């Protein structure tokens, strides 16, 4: 549904995107993850046709989106810094959106306003920040987009509203195969919602994979051996190891069964094998050689 | 009926698989009973439909579900289940760990044997029904 191939973009000689590629399947919920300044917002602005790439391809629904109205009509976007016409109420904005988006759904709009409990006659500039986020979400979802792009969407929403937002997203993915791309720093939340993850760093895609595959590929092992017994690491790809007292900690890439069999040979007293959380994978992959950073986490 | 723990390190699709397995093993879901569609369950649990889809595929490949195109997914009869030797070994290990702890806590052997007998009796009773 979204295909980005080898895109580069520089601002005044500063390379923000460095041959970035990104692929999102139809009906998928894709999490875009990266440290500050890694190029997340820049690539998102390409995906909605605000920026034009220097080189490479940006295709949404199989077409280049830049200056392409028919693709933009089917794409909704919520930015992290919201922008409204300050004098407009939610109702006024809805009328404006209705003119821009041919698939606009009045019924959905009315239902959402009711469920979120917003006053549609108050000027949007009088809304709190959280209410403005909700208003933006109502407008985006009422345009019945085929592609929904969210930049830091759920921050600043209370848990109840957050659940409601997620409910709407999941419903549209289930009912009409809406495609979603989300960027956030809240990795725990991304982990619960997304099925695919792209980690970008310095304007490049570092890893792009199915979330469950990503998680089942790397393991955290805490182990205590009887005295004199060494960790049997033959044929295992050890990414990180550390000893704290008698407890040894390993991060190992590979199949769970193989690792288990290997370790059990040495009859460990304690053996815990845990899948990594997305947060741990993220720090591991973007922290690079920075061992101090890793020590904070593992 | 479903318990999904978002705080668990266990993948959500695995939790869905385990939930269904439990319900099938305990007889809450009977053979040939229809299970909710991917969409229904995704909406009910507010979980990514692709994750539910993945769990259903897994359940089918392990022989807990069968699908009829156009009609949906159904619970398979136990005899349709496939090779379970890996899972059996895994469960034996779990049992050993539990037994070790029980013995360490000086739980009498007779009581442990009692548990085994009772469980076997209960299952036999269920299959006769």
What does this structure look like?
The complex is a heterodimer of chains A (298) and B (129). Chain A has 2 domains: 2-202, P-loop containing nucleotide triphosphate hydrolases (Rossmann fold, 3-Layer(aba) Sandwich); 213-297, Alpha-Beta Plaits, CATH 3.30.70. Chain A has 11 helices and 14 strands. Chain A has helices spanning 40-47, 69-72, 90-100, 106-116, 129-142, 159-176, 187-193, 211-217, 256-264, 278-287, 291-297, and strands at 2-11, 14-24, 29-34, 55-60, 63-64, 75-78, 147-151, 179-183, 196-201, 204-210, 218-224, 237-244, 247-253, 270-275. Chain A has a 6-stranded mixed sheet, sandwiched between helices. In chain A, strands 2-1-4-5 form a 4-stranded antiparallel sheet, covered by helices on one side. A 4-stranded antiparallel sheet of chain A has the order 12-13-11-14. Chain A starts with a strand and ends with a helix. The mean pLDDT of chain A is 88. Chain B folds into 2 domains: 12-80, Winged helix-like DNA-binding domain superfamily/Winged helix DNA-binding domain (Arc Repressor Mutant, subunit A); 85-128, no CATH class. Chain B is built from 5 helices and 2 strands. Chain B has a two-stranded antiparallel ribbon with strand order 1-2. Chain B starts with 11 loop residues before the first helix and ends with a helix. The interface between A and B is medium-sized, with 21 and 17 residues.
Quick synopsis:
With 298 residues, chain A is α/β, with parallel strands linked by helices.
Spans of chain A of 5+ residues with little confidence (pLDDT < 50)? Answer: none
- What is the total tally of β strands of chain B? 2
What Rg of chain B do the Cα atoms give? 17 Å
SSE run of chain A: EEEHEEHEHHHEHEHEEHEEEHEHH
CATH superfamily of the largest domain in chain A: P-loop containing nucleotide triphosphate hydrolases
| Oligomeric state | heterodimer
CATH architecture of the largest domain in chain A: 3-Layer(aba) Sandwich
Radius of gyration of chain A: 23 Å
Number of helices of chain B: 5
Arrangement of strands in the largest sheet of chain A: 6-7-8-3-9-10
Which percent range fits the helix content of chain B?
55-70%
- Give the CA-CA distance, first to last residue of chain A: 36 Å
State the CATH superfamily name of the largest domain in chain B. Answer: Winged helix-like DNA-binding domain superfamily/Winged helix DNA-binding domain
Order of helices and strands of chain B: HHHEEHH
**Main pleated-sheet profile of chain B:** 2 strands, antiparallel
Please bin the fraction of helical residues of chain A. Answer: 25-40%
Give the overall silhouette of chain B: globular
* Greatest interface and its participating residue counts: A-B, 21 and 17 residues
Quote the CATH topology of the largest domain in chain A.
Rossmann fold
């Amino acid at each position: 549904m979204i295909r980005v191939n080898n895109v580069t973009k520089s601002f005044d000689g500063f390379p923000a995107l460095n041959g970035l590629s990104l692929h999102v399947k139809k009906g998928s919920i894709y999490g875009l993850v990266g440290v500050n300044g890694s190029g997340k917002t820049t690539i998102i602005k390409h995906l909605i046709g605000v920026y034009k790439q220097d080189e490479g391809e940006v295709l949404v629904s199989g077409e280049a989106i830049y200056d392409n109205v028919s693709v933009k009509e089917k794409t909704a976007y919520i930015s992290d810094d919201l922008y409204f016409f300050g004098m407009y109420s939610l109702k006024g904005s809805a009328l404006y959106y209705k003119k821009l988006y041919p698939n606009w759904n009045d019924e959905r709009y009315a239902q959402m306003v009711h469920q979120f409990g917003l006053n549609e006659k108050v000027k949007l500039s009088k809304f709190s920040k959280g209410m403005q986020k909700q208003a933006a979400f109502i407008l985006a979802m009422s345009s019945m987009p085929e592609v929904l792009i969210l930049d830091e969407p759920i921050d600043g929403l209370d848990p109840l509203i957050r659940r409601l937002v997620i409910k709407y997203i999941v419903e549209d993915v289930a009912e009409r195969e809406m495609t979603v791309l989300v960027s956030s720093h809240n990795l725990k939340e991304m982990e619960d919602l997304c099925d695919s993850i792209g980690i970008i760093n310095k304007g490049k895609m570092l890893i792009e994979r199915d979330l469950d595959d990503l998680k089942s590929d790397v393991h955290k092992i805490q182990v205590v051996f009887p005295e004199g017994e060494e960790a049997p690491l033959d044929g295992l790809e050890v990414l990180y190891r550390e000893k704290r007292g008698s407890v040894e900690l390993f991060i190992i890439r590979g199949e769970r069964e193989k690792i288990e069999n290997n370790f059990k040979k040495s009859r460990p007293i304690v053996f815990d094998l845990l899948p990594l959380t997305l947060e741990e994978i993220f720090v591991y992959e973007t922290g690079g050689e920075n061992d101090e950073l890793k020590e904070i986490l593992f | 009926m479903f318990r999904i723990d978002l705080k668990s390190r266990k993948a959500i699709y695995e939790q869905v698989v385990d939930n269904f397995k439990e319900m099938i093993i305990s007889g809450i879901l009977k053979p040939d009973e229809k299970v909710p569609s991917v969409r229904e369950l995704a909406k009910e649990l507010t979980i990514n439909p692709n994750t539910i889809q993945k769990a259903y595929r897994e359940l089918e490949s392990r022989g807990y579900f069968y699908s009829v195109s156009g009609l949906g997914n159904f619970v398979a009869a136990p005899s349709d289940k496939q090779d379970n030797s890996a899972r059996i070994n895994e469960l034996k290990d779990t049992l050993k760990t539990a037994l070790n702890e029980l013995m360490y806590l000086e739980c009498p052997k007779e009581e442990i044997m009692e548990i085994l007998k009772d469980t076997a009796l209960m299952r036999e009773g269920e299959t006769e029904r």
